[in-house]
TrEMBL record:
Enzyme class: transferase
Name of this chain's protein: O-methyltransferase
SUPFAM superfamilies on file: S-adenosyl-L-methionine-dependent methyltransferases (SSF53335)
Domain of life: Bacteria
GO terms of molecular function: methyltransferase activity
Pfam families, per database record: Methyltransf_3 (PF01596)
Organism expressing this protein natively: Rhodococcus kronopolitis
Enzyme Commission number, as recorded: 2.1.1.-
Keywords assigned by UniProt, alphabetized: Methyltransferase, S-adenosyl-L-methionine, Transferase
GO biological-process terms attached to the record: methylation
Amino acid sequence: MRRTVGSSAAPERAAVLAVLVAAFVGGAVVANRLAGKPVPFLRWSVLRFLLGSRRLVREGRVGDGREEALARRVVEVARPGDLDGVIELIDDFARRTSFLMNVGDEKGLLLDDAIVRARPLRLLELGTYCGYSALRAARVMPPGARLYSVESSAANADVAQRIWEIAGVSDRITSVVGSLGDGGATMDRLAAEYGFSSGSVDFVFLDHAKEAYLPDLLRIEDAGWLHPGSVVVADNVLTPGAPDYLAYLRGEEGRRWRTVPHRTHVEYQKVLPDLVLESTLLGVAQP
């Protein structure tokens, strides 16, 4: 008698497949660890990061405690006032302990160089996360400069503040919890409390929600905060990508903006490519 496959067969096959996939991934991660982690994405912290992507989008945190763990590591290990040491400690944590979605060491050099060239006195950062890029900015900003870092997650802003205090740069960085897309509340606060006004912003670093890059740049433009010569640097334009932002700047090339693309890699590895855009405002659109 021929046996008829019941409706339970498909779920059973799916369960077996899931077990096999989990076993394969687990074995690959263990082998990668034993080999000295030559493949950066075969790490438990990266897999947890990817699995926590929904919470990451919603809350700006991975959800497994890595941000708080980083703050504790800095407080416990770093020497107060040692800015270079704190930056190196965060890089080491991201490579060896838990992957972090900050700009990283490779792309951080591009950010450093852009700030050195621009010599800005008022900087605006969108996307604080754990405060790493703000540390790099503070290290190369000219005397008298101040960075205003806008972060939608109050928990992230708290982590960053603790790290800045240990590094000895909290007197040069102002944390602003909010979002430029919140109906004007944060932009009104930047204007009323911190003096953001016509032509007052020399440098902008974009490293927050990628879909907000273009809307927020247009908000800043419409507010008149930029001036000819203002520089905007954007991270992760290729991976995970900000295609509308890239298309806008390509369309404005030589008219309102001049952009230098920097081909690089996603933070803390050399496998996935990425793109950092460094754009300089020319002024009114040219014919």
